[in-house]
Design brief:
The structure holds 2 protein chains of 2 kinds.
Chain A: H1 4-25, H2 40-58, H3 69-92, H4 95-109, H5 113-134
Helix pairs in contact in A: 1-2, 3-4, 4-5
Chain B: H1 2-14, H2 17-35, H3 41-54, H4 59-84, H5 95-141, H6 146-164, H7 168-182, E1 185-186, E2 193-194, H8 208-227, H9 245-250, H10 252-267, H11 272-288, H12 299-315, H13 317-323, H14 329-340, H15 347-352, H16 354-375, H17 379-385, H18 390-409, H19 412-430, H20 436-458, H21 479-498
Helix pairs in contact in B: 1-16, 2-3, 2-4, 2-16, 3-4, 3-8, 3-14, 3-18, 4-5, 4-12, 4-14, 4-16, 5-10, 5-12, 5-13, 5-16, 6-7, 6-20, 6-21, 7-20, 8-18, 8-19, 10-11, 10-12, 11-12, 14-20, 18-19
Chain lengths: 147, 510
């Protein structure tokens, strides 16, 4: 049983598709409907997806080169950073979260602390100037009521 | 001389200083984006879309800017292919085969100039082809009813998947994922929510811009973290840029042949520029035979894929504009722009909004000359850009993408979705599941379902309504719909058999 990646992904997608079909069954139908209705197309697409997944499970491809453990950890850290950034952008303003996140991302790509620091600061200020003053987008530099 | 009148209209729009400036800016950004390894035309256009909207550009200006980026990226891709042996974008993969050996032989600047001229010839002929073919095709498209459109969408999914992946099941799964995401939101026919899981943020559906930026731009940073931004030092020296007239003259037939073949590869729904460059390189290689020395660094080996890829880029605009079905990943992104700008691509576009169509065509012609100037005498500027380390560049690209989406929607939820799509894109690409069909699915899902439902309404629920599409003549079969359905089935299954003879280069998803 080699080639697990395709099989696991196929199995996961089958579960997703089944949940999808189940929730398509629940869709309310309006009293004035066309012959096809709201349910048929989503159920049809999800069924095709299940067929594809079965093929993937039965005939998986070569295993891709998954990164080593440490790299996976740094990718997960980056994802968490970006999630945090999504939440932070509104309450904390543009400058500080952008500096922290872009610096951290830079460090994840090439671990050079000084360069990462400068990248964070440079990108945060540079992009703010670009977006706010040249492209005229409504960005807030800092959180509300700080200054 | 309708075309000349239309062109005059186009140039009257495109030659305004503002539009001209946008075209030049687009060419510049596009060439840089194309040249940088890891960023291709679809990323470039995807990142710029939110910014374009936030700047409040009107339809013509936005299109001019974005298609200049598109054309520019197609030109730029060759720069890193030749200098680094890393394709700057997917279609430029074939250019590495002869471009890098030429550079190692000390002819880097010759390779850059020849490929630049080939790009120009390809793109120019393709733009002329677009001018001639698009109005004709739009006349045919008037015959299209819901049944025909449904068949056409099916064809696009079948062929796009078939060509951009090595595994048909995975390609089809990618389309299904896209279509499944498209169904999230309010059902357009009944107005009732579907698949939202009760989450109010999802009632409007998943914005395709969010998906595009996530799948194309954010997933890229994970790949760079994985590779630690290695292997991006320019190892070859670019000498003084001179024009190798003799080589250019010798490759004239190669350029012309490749432009024609590439254009038609681009017009086919789903095929796109990667196929164009692949087919043209293979064609020229077999014409030249063993004596041609393909693979050792010959000018023809650089000219063929570049002419092919740039003319396919122009060709891919034809189905996008006339039928609303994109011929490649980037044109799918451009279609998203048109839809968001409230312009419905399709046959009526040519009669309702001639200013958009002909303004765009004129802008493409202008962009081409600008690109020739940027890519031949000024090519060294872009070589410099290649030396920016990824540790600075990639965080910048990510932040620009985030701010673009945020300034467009102002919602933290959409940013979370961007991150989610980034992770999804990373996993899909790792598993060799193409991401372009996902985008196409999200983009066309609603239309595809609507056309199917409309066709069924016309036929009173009979599945034969897909072929017998005209209620007025129920006994007449529709040749267009039948042909498209047959082509879809063939297009999906043929690659399984052809794959034994034609091995596709890896990672093709322009």
């Amino acid at each position: 049983m080699g080639r697990l990646s395709d099989r696991i992904f196929g199995l996961a997608m089958i579960c997703v598709a089944l949940v999808y079909i189940a929730s398509a069954m629940q869709v309310q139908v309006s009293f004035l409907s066309d012959p096809v209705g709201s349910k048929a197309f989503p159920i049809g697409v999800a069924s095709v997806a299940i067929i594809c997944c079965v093929v993937m499970i039965l005939r998986p491809d070569e295993e891709p080169d998954w990164p080593v453990m440490w790299t996976v950890v740094s990718i997960i850290i980056s994802v968490l950073l970006l999630v945090g950034y999504s939440y932070a952008l509104k309450p904390l303003g543009f400058l500080i979260p952008t500096a922290i996140v872009s610096g951290a991302l830079s460090y994840q790509i090439t671990p050079k602390p000084i360069r990462a620091l400068l990248t964070g600061l440079g990108l945060s200020i540079g992009l703010f100037v670009l977006f706010r003053y040249i492209l005229d987008l409504g960005l807030v530099p800092f959180g509300k009521g700080w200054f | 001389m309708e075309i000349l009148d239309n062109l005059a209209l186009g140039f009257s729009i495109a030659l305004s200083p503002w539009t001209l400036m946008l075209a030049i800016l687009g060419c510049f950004i596009g060439t840089i984006v194309g040249a940088l390894p890891g960023l291709g035309p679809s990323n470039g256009v995807a990142i710029m879309i939110p910014i374009t909207f936030s700047m409040g550009l009107d339809a013509v200006s936005a299109l001019v800017l974005l298609t200049s980026i598109y054309y520019g990226a197609m030109y730029g891709g060759r720069i890193s292919s030749i200098l680094l042996n890393i394709p700057g974008d997917e279609p430029a993969l074939m250019t590495t085969l002869d471009g890098y050996p030429m550079a190692k032989n000390g002819r880097a600047s010759d390779a850059l100039v020849i490929s630049g001229v080939a790009s120009f010839v390809g793109a120019l002929l393709a733009t002329i082809g677009l001018m001639l073919l698009a109005p004709l095709l739009s006349r045919v498209a008037y015959e299209f009813g819901p049944g025909e459109y449904f068949a056409l969408y099916l064809l696009a999914f079948a062929t796009l998947g078939g060509i951009s992946s090595n595994n048909q099941a995975k390609a089809a799964l990618a389309s299904c994922i896209g279509l499944m995401i498209a169904m999230i939101g309010l059902d357009p026919n009944s107005g009732l929510p579907r698949m939202t899981g009760g989450n109010l943020h999802l009632y409007d559906g998943v914005d395709f811009l969010v998906a595009i930026v996530g799948l194309f731009a954010v997933s890229e940073i994970f790949f760079f973290i994985e590779s630690h931004g290695k292997s991006s030092a320019v190892g070859v020296i670019v000498g003084k840029v001179k024009v190798p007239w003799k080589d250019i003259w010798d490759t004239k037939w190669t350029m012309l042949r490749s432009s024609f073949l590439g254009f038609f590869a681009g017009v086919l729904p789903g095929a796109g520029a990667s196929l164009g460059s692949f087919m043209t390189y293979m064609m020229e290689k077999s014409i030249a035979g063993d004596k041609g020395g393909f693979g050792t660094g010959v000018p023809k080996g650089v000219a063929a894929p570049e002419a092919g890829n740039n003319s396919a880029a122009g060709g891919a605009l034809v189905p996008m504009l006339t039928l609303g079905v994109p011929g490649s990943g980037t044109t799918a992104v451009l279609l998203a722009v048109l839809v968001t700008l409230n312009i419905t691509p399709g046959p009526t576009l040519f009669t309702d909004r001639p200013d958009v169509v002909w303004g765009l065509i004129a802008a493409l012609l202008i962009a081409n000359f600008v690109l020739l100037i940027m890519n031949v005498p000024m090519v060294k500027v872009f070589v410099k850009v290649l030396q920016v380390p990824p540790a600075i560049l990639l965080p910048g690209v990510t932040m620009v993408s985030f701010v673009g989406i945020y300034s467009l929607t102002g919602s933290y939820f959409d940013l979370l979705l961007v991150v989610g799509f980034g992770v999804l894109g990373y996993v899909l690409r790792k598993l060799d599941i193409p991401t372009v069909p996902v985008i196409l699915g999200i983009l066309l899902g609603h239309q595809m379902e609507k056309q199917l439902r409309d066709a069924m309404v016309l036929s009173d629920g009979s599945a034969w309504g897909l072929i017998y599409t005209r209620p007025t003549q129920p006994e007449d079969i529709s040749y267009i719909a039948t042909g498209l359905l047959i082509a879809a089935v063939l297009g999906f299954f043929a690659p399984i058999f052809l794959r034994r003879f034609l091995t596709k280069p890896q990672r093709v998803s322009d």
